[in-house]
Amino acid sequence: MIRRLRKSKKDKGPSPDILMPPEGVALTLPVAGIGVRTAAQFTDIVLTSIAAVCLLVLLFTLELASPQSMAAIAVLVFFSIGVPYYVLAELAWNGQTLGKRIMKIKVVAHDGGPLSAHSLVLRNLMKEAEIFLPGTLLLTLDAASPLETTASLIWISIALLVPFRDRYRRRLGDMMAGTHVIHLPVPVLLTDLAVEKPASGADGKSFVFLSHQLDHYGAFELQTLETLLRARSTPTATAASRQTDAAIATIVEKIRKKIGYAEPVPSQDRLPFLKAFYNAQREHLEQRRLFGDRRENKHYAHTDKDI
């Protein structure tokens, strides 16, 4: 019996809080729970409802809609405002709406890659099919339509129960779009690596980064790089926690291309290069923060694609 329990635990796979991006550096990003997602959704519903009510009042004031057709127009207005709001907000803010920004959560690709417009559109259209349209139908049907009312209620109940049965708390739209929602980590600039001896290459040459080369990343990326450097520099680190040389080489090359660093980095200088870049990037961010410019991540600094 004990063996079966142990086997079942092993079969569960990796923790849902671990996200593996294409760069190969595992990130610990806690999955957003049902409560915080509900709070974010409620905030977005309130905001879109206020906008829809204002538009309906304007239409009624200008006598562009009659009282008899107000119910049908209201449904159309709520749909016309809601869907574009969710899609455009998540496209503009990289997987966040106003409600998600307030609750410090965001949508990420389930495979760790970049979010695509297709996945964001699909997950939000499915939200309408899962909850809002059946909910609207449930509210508008009368007692003379018991079959339709029961079907809508069953569908909504199933849609609401799906996230509770999924390890990543995904709803149907997330499963189809290949996304899930995470808590945003709080970027913390630690001092351990910054106080170390300045890194230099095998030939004693120091790496120098110009100001414009340090404008591409924020505190979140800096913290991710620090996690990588800590794992590599810890003497007791296991083989599983150490990143492969191929992954380190990939990260170095992506950073070089991103910041426009022209000189190639030899294999023996890759870790010194990353340490030097960390120190320079940390100093650059702290200087900007003194002037009120808090760069939380690379999307705040620029709108470039992911490295």
Low-confidence stretches: 301-307
Radius of gyration: 25 Å
Oligomer: single chain
Morphology: elongated
User: Could you report the average pLDDT, rounded to the nearest whole number?
Assistant: 81
**Widest β-sheet, arrangement of strands:** 1-2
Question: What pattern of helices and strands is seen along the backbone?
Answer: HEEHHHEHHHEHHHH
Instruction: Count the beta strands.
Output: 4
Tell me the strand percentage band. Answer: under 5%
Tally of helical runs? 11
Alpha carbon gap, first and last residue: 48 Å
Structural class: mainly alpha
Organism: Roseibium marinum
GO cellular component, one term: membrane
Protein name: Putative RDD family membrane protein YckC
Domain RDD: 31-178
In short:
By secondary structure, this protein is mainly α. It is built from 11 helices and 4 strands, in the order αββαααβαααβαααα.
Comma- or semicolon-separated keywords:
two-stranded antiparallel ribbon; transmembrane; 2 domains; 5% strand; membrane; mainly alpha; 307 residues; two-stranded antiparallel sheet
